[in-house]
Amino acid sequence: MKFEVSDKVVLITGANRGIGKAILEEALQRGASKVYAAVRNLDSAAPLVKQHGDRVVPVHLDLEDPASINSAAETAQDVQVVVNNAGVLKVENALSENSIEALQFEMNVNVYGLMRVAQAFAPVLKANGGGALVQLNSVASVKTFADLATYCASKSASYTITQALRDSLRDQGTQVVSVHPGPIETEMSHGAGFENAASPTLVATAIFDALSEGRFHAWPDPMAQQIGEAYQSFAENVVEADMQEAAS
């Protein structure tokens, strides 16, 4: 299953900055006809509208608020590509007194938020021919870092849901891509103490390359690519394999 973004309508959560902004710009550069900038604060998308004109349409969406997600899906009835980029990160290890609270917060946004988006937009994508759903996961979904234990747990869970969505949405013709960046130059990575982070443009390029090439996994930056190379055999032979078929 392959998908080209040219002349398509795209929705991106968290599109006002960082990776989301880079994805928006890449989509427009590749010929997307319109991009919904799905953000918690509509005013934050004003610079994007000023720069790109009516090809960018701000829409309110908060991953913690199911009503806002459903409302966005009602607004964006013409969407053909949904990129769930928004997410949260807490710097907590498993023994921290705040670790359970942190994990609950991260799960609500990073996992339940993904599920809410998928449930709201899957019927829209189906009605528009199938389209594509892209989830921003992380290398932290396959490798745990002790000081980011709760974040890693949430991203591992979101990766699991993404795998399930790949299978669940296949019959309606929706391509699903799971994106696994390493540290990327964003406010989030600065807050987590990462140095020498990679450019967000690498993530944006990897997403649309994966769509056009029909790949489920995308490993955008040097750190991610190193992990992806080591993970490749497991991904191909287990994650992406039809295990029912293999069992028979």
TrEMBL record:
> Superkingdom of this entry's organism?
Bacteria
Q: Which InterPro entries match?
A: NAD(P)-bd_dom_sf, Sc_DH/Rdtase_CS, SDR_fam
For this protein, the record's Pfam families field holds: adh_short (PF00106)
Organism in which the protein naturally occurs: Rhodopirellula islandica
Name of the molecule in the record: Short-chain dehydrogenase/reductase SDR
The UniProt keyword set, sorted, is: Oxidoreductase
Q: Would you identify the family this protein belongs to, as annotated?
A: Belongs to the short-chain dehydrogenases/reductases (SDR) family.
Gene Ontology MF annotations: oxidoreductase activity
